[in-house]
Amino acid sequence: MYNKMGITKPSLINEQTISRYFEIFLKKKPMNSSFHIFGRYRDIVIDEREPLEKQREIFFHELCHILRHAGIQSMMPTAFRELQEWDAQHFTQYAAIPHHMLKYIPFQEHDVVNQMSLMFQVSPELCEMRLEQVKRRLQTTRNITY
């Protein structure tokens, strides 16, 4: 997806570019974040009172709901709503810190989390979650025997 948009390195990840690509209006207002779909019209509203790194995470979370989910959460069973939220959390990790950009991360540095946070413009907490996911994936791959 990012390569088609010309997003090849962390500094090029841009909410406006991604929104335009998917024909989604992006708005920042002093109100709770949300997404809306009315026929072909789609928008994401981000709470501008949040820190910038949190705004980026909110954007990816709401983008996931638009691209991958259907239905009105308030009308669906709790388990299904929780599944959608779980999916949106994981989507946020992958979209904010994409696999093909892991090569830019200085894994050997003692302050890797802070460097990732600055590089990808997301919270250190999200970076820690993504690092743990990468470590788990590597361990799983190493444990596979052929």
H/E topology pattern: HHEEEHHHH
Low-confidence stretches: none
**Main sheet specs:** 3 strands, mixed
Helix content: 40-55%
Percent of sequence in beta strands: 5-15%
Could you report the average pLDDT, rounded to the nearest whole number? 92
Give, in spatial order, the strands making up the sheet with the most strands.
1-3-2
Report the span from N to C terminus: 32 Å
Helix count, DSSP H or I runs of 4 or more residues:
6
- Rounded Rg: 16 Å
- The number of domains is 1
Total strands: 3
* Structural category: mainly alpha
Properties at a glance:
146 residues, 12% strand, single chain, IrrE_HExxH, 3 strands, mainly alpha
Can I get a quick summary?
The protein has 6 helices and 3 strands. The chain has 146 residues and is mainly alpha-helical. The protein has a 3-stranded mixed beta sheet.
Secondary structure topology:
Layout: H1 2-5, H2 15-21, E1 25-29, E2 34-38, E3 41-47, H3 52-68, H4 78-96, H5 112-120, H6 124-143
Parallel strand pairs: 1-3
Antiparallel strand pairs: 2-3
Architecture overview:
Helix 3 packs across helix 4 (78-96) and helix 5 packs across helix 6 (124-143). With 146 residues, the chain is mainly alpha-helical. Strands 1-3-2 form a three-stranded mixed sheet. It has helices at 2-5, 15-21, 52-68, 78-96, 112-120, 124-143; strands at residues 25-29, 34-38, 41-47. The chain has one domain. The model has no long low-confidence stretch (mean pLDDT 92).
